Amino acid sequence: MLMLLIGLAGCNQDTLIEPSDDTVTLRTPEDLPMVPYHGEFVQTVDLTGGFLECLPEGFDLPLFPRLFTVEGKATHLGKIQGGTLEILNCTLDPSTGILGGDIAGTLIAANGDMIHFYGFAQAFPDGSGGSECTFDGGSGRWENACGYFTTQSSGQPDGMSMLVIADGEICAPGHIK
Question: Does this model's pTM top 0.90?
Answer without folding.
Answer: no
